[in-house]
Amino acid sequence: TIRLDRENISSIGKLRSLGEIHSLYLQQNHIKKIENLDCFPNLRFLCLAGNRIQRVENLQPLPHLCALDLSHNQIQLLDTEELPRNLQLLDLTGNECTLQHGYRELVVAALPHLLQLDAQPIHGEEEEGGGSSSSEEEELLPEPNIPFTVDRDFFADLRQELAGRSQRRRRETLEEHQARLEELRERRDLLLGPGWE
C-alpha cells in the first residue's frame, strides 16, 4: 500500500514498475490528470478523491482494479469506455458527470461486475447477463487482507480512517524531527562544548 494523501502532489510522475502494490491513496492533492499508472499492474484499489481531475482516462493498464474513488473532482463528461471492466466499486459523487441523463444505467451497463456505484448498492441491475457472473465475481474479489468492503458507508469510513492516519503520520514525523534535532544538539555539544551558541 502506498499512501500519499494531502501531499500537495500536482501530477503522477513516471515510476519504475511496482507490481507488489495493490492499494494507492492519492486523495486531497492537486492532481489534474490520471496518468502513468501502468507501473502498478496489480493495483486493486485506487483513491483519487478530492483532486482536480477533469477526465477519466489511462486506467486500461489496470486490469485488476476493483475499487476506484474519483469523488469530488471536476469530471464533467464520463466516457465509460475508459473504465476498467473489473470494477466492483466506483464513486463519482461530487462530479458533474453524475448529472448526465441516464448516467447510472450507462455505468451499470458498462461494468458487468459492479457492486456499488456512488455509495449505492447495485440491486440486481447487472443480473441480466446470465447465471455465470456470480462465480466470476467471486474470483475477482480481492483477498481478505486487502481493504475492501461493499458496505454503504465504505468511502465515508475510508476518508475518516485516512484523516486519522494522516494526523498520526504528521505527529510521528514531528516527533521524529524533534528527536533528530535533540540528537544534533547533543552532537554539537560534544564537538563544541555545551556553552556554544
From TrEMBL:
Q: From which residue to which does the signal peptide run? A: none
Stretches the record annotates as Disordered: 124-148
Q: Per the record's keyword annotation, is NADP included, yes or no?
A: no
- Provide the primary localization: other
Q: Write out the entry's keywords from A to Z.
A: Cell projection, Cilium, Leucine-rich repeat, Repeat
- A Pfam family assignment: LRR_9
Protein name, UniProt field = LRC46 protein
**Residue spans of biased composition, Acidic residues class:** 125-141
Gene3D superfamilies per the UniProt record, alphabetical: Ribonuclease Inhibitor (3.80.10.10)
Give the matching PROSITE patterns.
Answer: LRR (PS51450)
Q: Which SUPFAM superfamilies match?
A: L domain-like
